[in-house]
Design goal:
two-stranded antiparallel ribbon, 7-stranded mixed β-sheet, Rossmann fold
């Protein structure tokens, strides 16, 4: 190959790289403008950049015999605003409540769209649990409650640390979408590491899946009009959510033994393929865990805001207080 041909090939490669970077920059600017048109005006702490309605929650009382650690879902407005009334009820019943803000949650657009790994949140969560256990002592009941992708964090904590119960609400497990279905591009792209190079961000529309995946129309309307959720998905982060789901299914989940768990799933959940949550619960039970699995009819992904939320909240309270429950058989889908 002549020197001229090498030069042309090099310049062509540089042109392709430059064009791709220009495309990525343009796509980001389009995403920013789209989100700013959809997203209500929010205020953030000037120093720590928490949303003013998304601060962490720490409710403690000296006579409490149990603590609920609540780990929220992927990048949603943290639990302070959505579930504060419920947290206050738990606290009034003699239960400490800790709802931390992990990773990139409760952050302005630019800060929440940085590079992120699910292990960032896992490393923070295990340190938080160690602090609670050290302060509370070995006889204090600690229940880890996790929503959506954070179920992977809860299972990882239960494998490596002493906890008295685990509640998984709508756990994300692979596959996140039926193979070949591209109607929900974010879930379709999740296992494909190369997808973010083509479409770095997806902007959600104002439909059921665009705010909160709640099946009941009245509860969905109420939540989507009162509680903010970011509208953009950064696909490199969605890929991390998928990796966390694989981590739970293939690595930490099979190691879990002798643990009390309650797992809740909605039969209209749009974020997982039907049946995978029941199969995961069945695997946990075969490995010697005490598993209470419940498939809630007519519910979507956000069970704590859907029409059967009282059943989920009651089970969490009973587990925290050490109350007996009636086992529910696991039926694989």
């Amino acid at each position: 190959m002549s020197a001229r041909a090498v030069t042309r090939a090099g310049l062509g490669a540089l042109a392709i790289v430059g064009a791709h970077r220009l495309y990525l920059a343009g796509h980001w600017q389009w995403t920013r403008l789209s989100v700013k048109r959809i997203e209500p005006k929010l205020e953030f702490d000037p120093d720590f950049q928490f949303s003013t309605i998304g601060n962490p929650v720490f409710l403690s009382r000296p006579d409490a015999e149990a603590t609920v650690i609540y780990l929220d879902g992927f990048r949603i407005q943290p639990a302070a605003e959505m579930h504060r009334d419920w947290f206050d009820e738990l606290h009034a019943a003699g239960i400490n409540v800790i709802a931390p803000v992990l990773g990139i949650a409760s952050a302005p657009l630019e800060l929440r769209n940085r590079d992120w790994s699910y292990l960032d949140d896992a490393r923070q969560a295990v340190q938080l649990l160690d602090v609670v256990r050290t302060v509370a002592g070995p006889d204090h009941r600690i229940i880890v409650v996790a929503f959506s992708w954070s179920s992977a964090l809860a299972v990882g904590l239960a494998v490596r640390r002493q906890v008295d119960g685990v509640v998984l609400i709508s756990p994300i497990l692979p596959p996140m979408i039926t193979p070949g279905d591209t109607t929900r591009f974010g879930e379709w792209a999740a296992p494909r590491w190369w997808a973010p190079s083509l479409v770095p961000h997806v902007t959600r529309r104002k439909v059921r899946g665009g705010g909160w995946d709640i099946a009941d129309p009245e509860h969905r309307r109420r939540s989507n009009t009162t509680v903010w959720n970011n509208r953009e998905l950064r696909l490199t982060q969605v890929h991390q959510v998928y990796r966390a789901a694989e981590w739970m299914r293939d690595r930490t989940g099979p190691k879990l033994r002798d643990q009390q768990l309650a797992i809740f799933a909605g039969d209209s959940d749009r974020h997982v393929v039907p049946g995978v949550q029941a199969k995961f619960a069945e695997m946990l039970r075969r490995n010697g865990n005490d598993v209470d699995f419940r498939m809630l009819e007519g519910c979507g992904h956000c069970l704590l805001m859907d029409h059967r939320q009282a059943e989920v909240k009651s089970a969490i309270r009973d587990m925290a207080l050490g109350r007996a429950r009636t086992p529910v058989p696991v039926v694989a889908g």
